[in-house]
Write a structure and sequence with these properties.
There is one protein chain. Helix content is 77%, strand content 4%. It is mainly alpha-helical. Strands 1-2 form a two-stranded antiparallel ribbon.
């Protein structure tokens, strides 16, 4: 890379790869989510992501460059972490909280990437491209905000209550009886009870 213009194209190829990987991952995340609001957020962002891919294709056409040829390794890793969460056993509310955390890491990666290429486009005097990139940046910021709101008002609260429910179940487990060496019956708490 010998110019800011070349860097812009390379970074946008990375984002194009990232968005296309995300197109495959979002339906799996939506399917894994248990809260209807989270399913809807993932489904909605899938549609938005399709538009972002199309927008990038328009930008590449305007630059007379190909979007192909680069694999975004960072997104590959972020998606692999999300896949681990999907495959994990556990309380559905806690898994939803983990899915949001994973999705927000993706959003923050995209926000950083789009912020950089938007700045490069502005410096290069490519105002129409900078405007399109800003549009995507705004969408990514809104998606991140929506995930934060869901986490703070529903998902994390449900996950915390799942912890409380589990603790309550442990406390009400009946004591079991056993005979001591001298034959007396004694009560002992079940394993795991506080």
């Amino acid at each position: 890379m010998n110019s800011l213009h070349e860097l812009l194209i390379e970074e946008m190829k990375d984002l194009y790869s990232a968005e296309n990987q995300l197109l495959k991952a979002l339906p799996k995340m939506a399917k894994a989510a248990s809260a209807p609001e989270l399913k809807e957020a993932f489904t909605s962002h899938l549609e938005e992501t399709r538009g972002q891919v199309q927008r990038l294709e328009e930008i590449f056409e305007e630059l007379e460059a190909s979007p192909r040829g680069k694999k975004c390794k960072a997104m590959e890793g972020l998606i692999a972490e999300g896949k681990d969460i999907i495959e994990e056993d556990g309380n559905p509310s806690v898994k939803d909280a983990a899915l949001i955390a994973s999705a927000q890491r993706v959003e923050h990666y995209e926000i950083a990437g789009y912020g950089c290429v938007r700045t490069f486009a502005n410096l290069l005097g490519l105002q129409s491209i900078a405007n399109k990139l800003q549009e995507t940046l705004d969408e990514e910021g809104a998606a991140d905000h929506k995930l934060t709101e869901l986490a703070e008002t529903i998902i994390n609260v449900d996950a915390e209550n799942a912890d409380d429910d589990e603790e309550a179940e442990e406390e009400v487990k009946p004591a079991r009886t056993s005979r001591s060496a001298n034959g007396n019956v004694r009560k002992t708490a079940k394993a795991g009870a506080a």
